[in-house]
Write a structure and sequence with these properties.
Layout: E1 14-17, H1 24-38, E2 42-47, H2 53-65, E3 70-76, H3 79-89, E4 93-96, E5 105-112, E6 116-117, H4 124-137, E7 149-151, H5 155-164, E8 174-179, H6 185-192, E9 198-203, H7 225-234, E10 238-242, E11 249-252, E12 258-259, H8 261-275, E13 281-285, H9 291-298, E14 302-306, H10 310-320, E15 324-326, E16 332-334, H11 343-355, H12 361-366, E17 372-373, E18 377-380, H13 384-395, E19 402-404, E20 409-412, E21 416-422, E22 428-435, H14 438-452
Parallel strand pairs: 2-3, 2-4, 3-7, 8-9, 8-10, 13-14, 13-15
Antiparallel strand pairs: 1-5, 4-5, 5-6, 10-11, 11-12, 15-16, 17-22, 18-22, 19-20, 20-21, 21-22
Helix pairs in contact: 1-2, 1-4, 8-9, 8-11
Protein name: Phosphoglucosamine mutase
InterPro entries: A-D-PHexomutase_a/b/a-I, A-D-PHexomutase_a/b/a-I/II/III, A-D-PHexomutase_a/b/a-II, A-D-PHexomutase_a/b/a-III, A-D-PHexomutase_C, A-D-PHexomutase_C_sf, Alpha-D-phosphohexomutase_SF
Domain Alpha-D-phosphohexomutase alpha/beta/alpha: 7-136, 156-256, 266-371
Length: 454
């Protein structure tokens, strides 16, 4: 019987429960299918610290090698370290991780050479089709001789590349609490931060894919409580939290207050524009703060607004030649990193910006954090289209209101905006709202939620 991959293959990656939804047998077929769809003659694999990751990664390598492909295994790594290897070695790649999902999950993030993403429209649908067919019929025989599987350590090279992109030579000593959440930040941070004038307070650096301390998802406020407390207790200059595969970074200031990813996007955008002579395109998705395009224009850049999601950001980065892109979810994309996302490089920019002046982080980021946002609020609804239409009907004839449907529905005035987007995978509508002050934001947020939840 053919495997049912409908719940396993997502828009951008493979992700599901092991062994209930997938196992090493399927991983081997994914390796073979990846080779057939991409035409790879060699590839690179890496994996996170989950108990199932080494076996799944090796099975994928076997499936690829059986079709004559040479596989370079970089072993334990963060997702952006795998992207580094794909870019630096010029090879397609596969990263075995389920990012911030619970321990029983695992997945594959795949890319072509140069870290170009493989998603539904760029090969993932064809890979799924082959794996489903081959799980029933068996993969066809190949005449090619078996490829080699060799190990290669890229951690030092990855760290050196990141440090070459940020000038850290003149920063003052800083005390930084780092919460790795028992994820891959515990593996990469010691090497990347080595030699910098940092007093690092490590939290949960032990690699443990069962996540004994808290979920490795800093987007949920409950998971940064330990970091906030530790920053205050230690008198640290800032705190940094990484998600499970350490491709996203979240920042808290010296008071333990979270710094919005929009403010980080604006700060890094200003720095990247300065590096590029005050010129360049900066990508931001449509639910980042108004602050982001304002700061970009003030520093001579051109802001470009996109849909939410890394495939849209990366496609627009490539199309426009953008130098940097940021999302509300703390994904940060850099032209100098093959247009791929790396939270670690964003973290180095924050350290360089803070260490290059004498004030506290709260003062530094205030200039980039100008408005009041609601954060993302999810509502379970029976009829996504019907509720979205009801929101549109409530606002479309109001004077001074602008509507657009780049991604869901965005409604904006001179003083506030909100966006409502349907989830692709769950019966949810996601609301983000922002205004010039707290009272206005709360009023708009509550009005829209009342319509969504009616």
């Amino acid at each position: 019987m053919a495997a049912d991959l409908s719940q396993l293959v997502k828009a951008y990656d493979v992700r599901g429960v092991v062994p209930d939804q997938w196992d090493e047998t399927l991983a081997e077929l994914f390796g073979a299918a990846f080779v057939q769809v991409t035409g790879a003659t060699a590839l690179v694999t890496g994996h996170d610290m989950r108990p199932s990751s080494p076996g799944l990664s090796r099975a994928f390598a076997r499936g690829a090698a059986a079709r004559g492909v040479d596989v370079t295994e970089i072993g334990l790594c963060s997702t952006d370290q795998l992207y580094y290897a794909s870019g630096a070695l010029g090879l397609p790649g596969a990263m075995f991780t389920a990012s911030h999902n619970p321990a029983q999950y695992n997945g594959i993030k795949m890319c072509r050479a140069g870290a170009a993403p493989v998603g539904q429209d760029t090969g993932l649908a064809e890979i799924r089709e082959l794996v489903e067919r081959w799980s029933e019929e068996g993969a066809p025989e190949v005449t090619a001789s078996t490829g080699t599987i060799t190990a290669r350590d890229t951690l030092e090279d990855y760290a050196a590349h990141l440090r070459s992109l940020v000038d850290l030579t003149a920063i003052r000593p800083l005390k930084v609490a780092v919460d790795a959440g028992n994820g891959m930040g515990g593996h990469t941070v010691p090497t990347v931060f080595a030699g910098l004038p940092l007093d690092v307070v490590p939290m949960y650096f032990e690699l443990d894919g069962t996540f004994p301390n808290h979920e490795a998802n800093p987007l949920d406020p409950a998971n940064i409580v330990d970091l906030q407390r530790r920053v205050r207790e230690e008198g640290a200059d800032l705190g940094i939290a990484f998600d499970g595969d350490a491709d996203r970074c979240f920042v808290v200031d010296e008071r333990g207050n979270p710094v919005s990813p929009s403010a980080i996007t604006a700060l890094v955008a200003a720095r990247e524009l300065a590096r590029n002579g005050g010129k360049g395109v900066i990508i931001h998705n449509l639910i980042t703060s108004w602050s982001v395009p304002e700061v970009v224009e003030e520093h001579g850049g051109t802001p470009v607004r996109t849909r939410v999601g890394h495939s849209f950001i990366k496609a627009e980065m490539a199309r426009s030649g953008a130098i940097f892109g940021g999302e509300h979810s703390a994904h940060y994309y850099f032209k100098d990193f093959w247009n791929a996302d790396t939270g670690m490089l964003a973290a180095l920019h924050v350290l360089a910006a803070l260490g290059g002046q004498e004030g506290p982080l709260s003062s530094l980021v205030a200039q980039y954090d100008r408005y009041t946002g609601s954060g993302e609020i999810n509502s379970t609804v029976a009829d996504q289209a019907g509720r979205l239409a009801a929101v549109r009907a409530a606002y479309e004839n109001q004077e001074g209101v602008r509507l657009d449907e780049l991604d869901g529905l965005t409604v904006a005035t001179a003083d506030w905006w909100f966006n409502v987007r349907p989830s692709n995978t769950e019966p949810l509508l996601r609301l983000n709202a922002e205004a010039r002050d707290e009272a206005t934001m709360a009023k708009v947020r509550d009005e829209v939620l009342a319509i969504i939840r009616a």
